[in-house]
Design brief:
Number of domains: 2
CATH topology of the largest domain: CHAD domain
Number of helices: 12
Shape: globular
Number of strands: 0
Strand content: under 5%
Distance between the termini: 25 Å
Radius of gyration: 20 Å
């Protein structure tokens, strides 16, 4: 079974002859629909997964936005980035509270999450904002405004694999710049590394099917590394907030760090697959 990003790429109908702007718009639209659906679910369901999936949809959209930034006029990038960040900021506190409630399993932690859920629902009900899908399409509907200048127009009209390859290479270079030893990164750097690795993973899942080489081995290692880094991030966040920690937190974190380091060591030696443009 493929990942959500891979399924989105398939449902968006991406192909080697899709131009960059069209592919970008299709993928943003697919994730915006998912976000809107999960946002509606938050109003009626206490399932933490609705919040999580709404945030993941926004992360995928922001990864696309960063990867295709040079194709967009500065004003368009700023408008989309601000829109997605505002939506993500709404969901962040509740997602953190849900994670802590699950880790601790205490009535107090669950009560704190329930209170934040009630507050978020009240915020949603009071809002008059349009759906994210409509908001995104409103920003991008005028091509001449969204894409200004000959250079940006060439990028927008280029075959999607060409621009996807460029975005993947930039994301991979940013990851490699953190160096080979994750243990030497301070908490802020490790958090940034985790965000950049998510970006690389989402881009590879969106566009892996456009290339002849097999992206699956790298995607699997990236997923294992991110799972481990997620455990580390959750515990670091709890400590920073002075929250109660689950039993065996130090041991759990040490094992997660070791798994992440091992996965990163293998990833750094993996061959790139996005330079073989069909």
């Amino acid at each position: 079974m493929g990942t959500k990003a891979q399924k989105l790429a398939k449902s968006a109908g991406l192909a080697g002859d899709t131009n960059a702007l069209d592919g970008f718009r299709r993928l943003l639209r697919e994730d915006a629909v998912i976000h809107d659906r999960k946002r509606a679910a938050i109003l009626t369901s206490d399932d933490p997964e609705a919040v999580h999936q709404a945030r993941v949809a926004l992360r995928r959209m922001r990864s696309l936005l960063r990867g295709f930034r040079d194709m967009l006029s500065p004003g368009t990038f700023k408008a989309l980035d601000g829109l997605l960040k505002a939506r993500a900021d709404q969901l962040g506190p509740l997602r953190d509270a849900d994670v802590q409630a699950e880790a601790l399993g205490t009535p107090q932690a669950q009560s704190a999450a329930d209170d934040l859920r009630a507050e978020l629902r009240a915020t949603f009900q009071a809002e008059t904002a349009l759906s994210l899908k409509i908001e995104v399409e409103r920003v991008l509907h005028d091509r001449n405004r969204a894409i200004r200048g000959d250079r940006r127009r060439r990028l927008a009209d280029a075959p999607l694999p060409v621009i996807a390859s460029r975005a993947l290479q930039v994301a991979w270079t940013e990851l490699l710049a953190f160096g080979p030893d994750l243990g030497r990164l301070d908490p802020e750097e490790l958090h940034d590394f985790r965000k950049r690795s998510k970006e690389m993973r989402y881009l590879s899942e969106f566009f892996g099917r456009l290339f002849d080489s097999d992206a699956a081995p790298m995607q699997k290692r990236m997923a294992r590394m991110q799972d481990a880094l997620g455990v580390v991030n959750d515990l670091v966040t709890m400590r920073a907030r002075g929250s109660e920690l689950p039993k065996g937190a130090d041991k759990t974190e040490a094992k997660a760090r070791a798994r992440a380091a091992k996965a990163w060591d293998k990833l750094r030696g993996a061959p790139v697959w996005w330079t073989d443009i069909p």
